[in-house]
Amino acid sequence: MKVYTGGGDKGKTSLFSGERVPKHHIRIEAYGDLDELNSMLGVVSALLPEGEQAVRDDLEGMQSHLFLAGAWLATTPDSSATGYLTALPVNVSKDLENRIDALSEVLPALKEFILPGGQPVAAWAHVARTVCRRCERRLTELIEASPSGGNGELAAIQVYLNRLSDYLFVLARYLNQALGTADKTWKK
Fold first, then answer.
1. Domains in the chain, start-ordered, CATH in brackets?
2. What is the pLDDT of residue 149?
3. How far apart are CA 67 and CA 171, in angstroms?
4. Are 77 and 146 in contact (CB under 8 A)?
5. For 146-165, what is each residue's pLDDT tens digit?
6. Percent helix, strand and coil across the chain, each to the nearest 5
7. More reliable by pLDDT, 137 or 18
């Protein structure tokens, strides 16, 4: 199978549900942002220090969940193609909360705003967090633009992205601490 097809040479592409839409369509923007986030998680994973297998496993699971989410975003809610899609696991957002709590246990309490940065892997986790927040904003736009408000799965993805951005914030702090770099607080 070739990577290139030429099908999008005139500025249109196909959704999973079959419709041809402009490449700037809100659905394309939404799952394109998820693809960017998935790539960012790959960067963070590639830069993880030795001994962080639990975090590496977290990120790999998140990448898989983002593929599932992307398929939902690439499918119109009333399409029969939704029958072929896999929902996010039921406890996926709660599992993220548990991982956030586990990483937070070893961190000092946060009493001030911190500046993104520190160790390169932590700085990339902050970048991934901001991309995740963009995904959230784009998804809320897609949900509002959908005649029926999207579907239940889009709402579950919205919750997941909200938790994922929190996880990435805590992960950045965790990685800085693990690598001996203190949080840098914002000074007015």
1. 18-72+87-178 (1.20.1200.10)
2. 66
3. 21
4. yes
5. 877 667 899 999 999 999 99
6. 60, 5, 35
7. 137
